[in-house]
Design goal:
There is one protein chain. With about 210 residues, the chain is of the alpha/beta class. Helix content is about 30%, strand content about 10%. It has a single domain, classed as TIM Barrel (Alpha-Beta Barrel). The strands form two sheets. It has a four-stranded parallel sheet. Strand 3, helix 4 and strand 4 form a beta-alpha-beta unit. Helix 1 runs parallel beside helix 2 and helix 5 packs parallel to helix 6.
C-alpha cells in the first residue's frame, strides 16, 4: 500500500483503508502510515473542492449503528474512506500512540486482545474474531457481547481459526456453514447494532 493507491481506492468507493502495523510483509512504518492517512484525507478535501457530498461513513460513537460522517483523527477534514490501523497483541499504549500520530479512525485488533484490554483503547475498535470450524452463531454472539460492553460501536470481521496465524490467511469464513449459516449470524449482529462485514479474505490472492 502506498499513498497514491490508497487515494485511488478511497476515490473508487472503499469504505476503509487498512494500515498493517502488525508483523507482515505488508507492514508499514509510522511514517509510511502517516503519509497514507494524509493522502486519504486529501481525497476528501478534493471531493469537497469539487462540490461533491461527503460519503457516508461507518457508525461512530453514539451513532446507534447508523452510518454517519466521521472525521479522520482529531479535527481532521471528512475524507472518502476511514483509515484503520491493524495491530496484533501490541501494548495498548503503543496502539493509542500510533492512532494519535496518524489520526486513525478505527483500530483493528486481530490478536488475543481481551474485552478488558479493549477498555484501554482510545479509538473505536474493530475486533477480529478467529472462529473454530464448529463455532455456532450463538457462541459468536456471546463473544461479540463481551466486546460490546466496553464499546457498543465495535465492529467484528470474522476469520477462520488457522493455527499459528492471526488473520490475513486469505481463507474466508464459511458463511453458509450450519443449517442457517449467514442468516443466523446476520440476525445476531443486527440485534447488537452491527451490520458490516469485512471483504478482504474473499478477494485476496495471497495471505498477508
Amino acid at each position: 500500500m502506498d499513498p497514491q493507491r490508497a487515494a485511488v481506492a478511497a476515490r473508487l468507493g472503499a469504505d476503509m483503508i487498512g494500515l498493517v502495523f502488525a508483523p507482515s510483509r505488508r507492514r508499514v512504518s509510522l511514517g509510511q502510515a502517516l503519509e497514507i492517512a494524509e493522502a486519504v484525507r486529501g481525497c476528501g478535501a478534493s471531493a469537497r473542492d469539487r462540490g461533491s457530498d461527503a460519503k457516508p461513513r461507518p457508525p461512530t460513537p453514539g451513532g446507534q449503528g447508523r452510518p454517519s460522517l466521521q472525521r479522520n483523527g482529531e479535527g481532521g477534514p471528512p475524507s472518502c474512506a476511514s483509515v484503520v490501523g491493524v495491530f496484533v497483541n501490541f501494548p495498548p499504549e503503543e496502539v493509542n500512540a500510533a492512532a494519535e500520530a496518524c489520526g486513525l479512525d478505527y483500530i483493528q485488533l486481530s490478536g488475543d486482545e481481551s474485552p478488558d484490554y479493549c477498555r484501554n483503547i482510545s479509538r473505536p475498535f474493530i475486533k477480529a474474531l478467529r472462529l473454530a470450524p464448529d463455532s455456532e452463531p450463538g457462541e459468536m454472539a456471546l463473544q461479540m457481547d463481551a466486546y460490546i460492553m466496553p464499546r457498543p460501536d465495535a465492529l467484528f470481521p470474522l476469520d477462520p481459526h488457522v493455527p499459528g496465524e492471526y488473520g490475513g490467511s486469505g481463507r474466508p469464513w464459511d458463511w453458509e456453514r450450519g443449517p442457517h449459516g449467514a442468516r443466523d449470524l446476520s440476525q445476531s449482529a443486527r440485534r447488537r447494532g452491527s451490520s458490516r462485514g469485512e471483504g478482504c479474505a474473499p478477494v485476496e490472492q495471497e495471505p498477508l
